[in-house]
Design goal:
Largest sheet: 6 strands, mixed
Helix content: 10-25%
Strand content: 25-35%
CATH architecture of the largest domain: Alpha-Beta Complex
Number of helices: 7
């Protein structure tokens, strides 16, 4: 197995106790809501509200919330203080609603991880107001971690979509590509959703063959990262390519190139001819780990 890098992986490092046992106890959640130390993270149109200087999450008191909205229980701080998130307008809070990507790049790991949790679950509630089984309205249960159909009683849970993101490597070269909608000059690792009935290793091999026309072997895991847009789990890997010849699926890949470790290192320093993903993205970790020679 490839050694997991020591550098930061965006949206990881959360240290709230998610306290699953409280989610099933409606009375306990109500007590937590009324606790003097309880605070709410407001997400205005799924944008987390940060302090005015932008250096931390703004934790609102219950009395500061001007409107009702979907609320979820995030967990407990180390001192037992309850933390919630709410989907509602910012109102007169002394903070600013900030794009979740920008906030994730600015904040410390543990704060960014809270954004990932809050944004993904609140976005799921927005999308699942009706039962997939019978079409009737659903209502939130378990402190926001399930929805119950009001007609057929089917229970629905927040989903996580598994995505593989990988570098094909051969003879000290690695394959990067750019999608049709990427900015000009931007290249990254190839990626794709895991399909039903396949392993992560099979998904890596399939996606590389479908998108770039190459066969690979020796797939090896690096690390994983939540990506809350809306609720993906990115699983990073390397795979040894059998050859260099590419046949691109141009609906998915507009351009691709084999790069050297030196070229990759230069790009990550900002000295290259193309742009790499920012440090918050696990694709950056894939490239940096490979460029350092530790993959």
């Amino acid at each position: 197995m490839t050694k997991v890098p020591k550098f930061k992986l965006g949206y990881t490092g959360g240290n709230l106790d998610r306290a699953d046992h409280l989610r099933r106890d409606a009375q306990a959640i109500q007590v937590a809501r009324m606790h003097p130390s309880a605070r709410w993270l407001v997400l205005d149109d799924l944008k987390p509200v940060l302090t005015e200087d932008g250096n931390d999450l703004y934790w609102a008191r219950r009395s500061e919330l001007e409107s009702e909205g979907q609320t979820i229980f995030l967990g407990l701080e180390a001192d037992g203080s309850p933390r919630f998130a709410i989907d509602c307008p910012i109102g007169d809070l002394p903070g600013r609603a900030t794009d979740a990507r920008a906030a994730g790049m600015r904040l410390p790991d543990d704060r960014a991880a809270i954004i990932a949790q809050a944004r993904s679950v609140l976005d799921w509630h927005r999308r699942h107001g009706f039962c997939a089984a019978c079409g009737a309205p659903t209502r939130p249960e378990k402190a926001g971690y399930s929805r119950l159909c009001t007609s057929c009683a089917a229970e629905h849970f927040p989903r996580v979509d598994p995505v593989v993101i990988m570098l094909a490597v051969k003879d000290d070269l690695a394959l990067v590509g750019r999608g049709p909608n990427f900015p000009a000059g931007f290249f990254s690792a190839l990626a794709g959703f895991v399909e039903p009935g396949e392993s992560l290793e099979e998904a890596v091999a399939r996606e590389l063959h479908e998108e770039a026309g190459i066969r690979v072997h020796n797939v090896r895991y690096l690390a994983s990262q939540p990506w809350p847009f809306p609720a993906s789990l990115m699983m990073a890997a390397y795979a040894d390519a059998d050859g260099f010849e590419l046949t691109l699926d141009e609906t998915e890949i507009a351009a691709a190139r084999w790069i050297s470790r030196d070229e990759c290192a230069a790009v990550l320093r900002g000295d290259g001819e193309w742009q790499a993903p920012p440090p918050i993205a696990i694709a950056h970790a894939l490239l940096a780990n490979w460029a350092s020679g530790t993959s």
